[in-house]
Amino acid sequence: MKLAFSKRGSSNVAFLLVMALAPAPGLAAVQEKGRLVFQGGSRGNNFEIIWAWLTEHLKKDSGWEGILEVIPSDGVGGLDALAAGKADFTLVKAPATARMAYEGKGLFNAPHRALRSFGLLPVPDWLTFAVRPDIQADTVEELLRQKRPLRIATGRDSPRDVVTFLLGEILGFHGTTFEELERAGGRILRLDPGDSIQAGIDGKVDVIFQEAQSMALWDGLFAKGWKVLSLNDAARETSLADLSHPA
How far is it, in rounded angstroms, from Cα 96 to Cα 109? Predict the structure, then answer.
């Protein structure tokens, strides 16, 4: 399970159905009642649309009647629920998130060794580092060296958002942090993918680091002249070291 990161500063993802290999104490009680708990999103982006499609089709099957319970959650929360025995299955967008949970790195403080994936749906999605047209830089390193105040739209307002975590890793490799950027007059805007891209189209931000490359809004952003910055190999490999090594 890998998260590949290209020289353009983008990473491919795939949806994973994940379950716990062995029942945790809380899960055993759920199973005794003859119920299965699916924990996943319901907020309307591509991740949650697939989740809703899956669970709604299961609910329509008479064999699942009265058995399936769906709890809204993000991917990280779903993995936490599996580890705690509060859910049977979850849907995770980035394989690297499941890798972090399995090994107890990045967003997770302890390894969740019982996690197993049993389904994979490849998705043409990318994490992209884009800047407005008038910024004179071709790489993330060049941009940060300019020490300009930057308004950056990135992942959702959650302390464990994967997109924001990866941006923090990239900034850290280049010797800066969110706090230092804000002290220099910049702003970090925590938004959904669509809202981030729209903020760029409307001229409200200077930088976007976001996912959901399949959204049509990206076409509108690039039609305005926005460009994608690249990461050098050292930054890419160092920032994602915990996520990209082989199983």
Answer: 15
- Integer Cα distance of 38 and 56 in angstroms: 11
Q: List the pLDDT tens digit at each of the 247 positions of the chain.
A: 233 333 334 444 455 666 665 444 444 544 455 678 888 765 555 666 777 777 777 777 777 777 777 777 777 888 888 888 888 888 887 777 888 888 888 888 899 888 877 667 666 677 899 999 999 999 999 999 999 999 999 998 887 888 899 899 899 999 999 999 999 999 999 998 899 999 999 999 999 999 877 788 999 999 999 999 998 888 777 765 555 443 3
Would you say how long the chain is, in residues?
A: 247
H helical segments located in 133-175: 140-145, 162-173
241, HSE (Cβ side, Cα atoms, 13 Å): 6
pTM above 0.70, yes or no: yes
Phi, psi for 60 (deg, rounded to 5): -75, -15
Q: Report how far Cα 8 is from the mean position of its chain's Cα atoms.
A: 18
Strand, helix or coil for residue 95: helix
Q: How far apart are CA 116 and CA 160, in angstroms?
A: 21
Q: Is the dihedral of CA 108, 93, 240, 159 positive or negative?
A: negative
Q: How far apart are CA 189 and CA 154, in angstroms?
A: 6
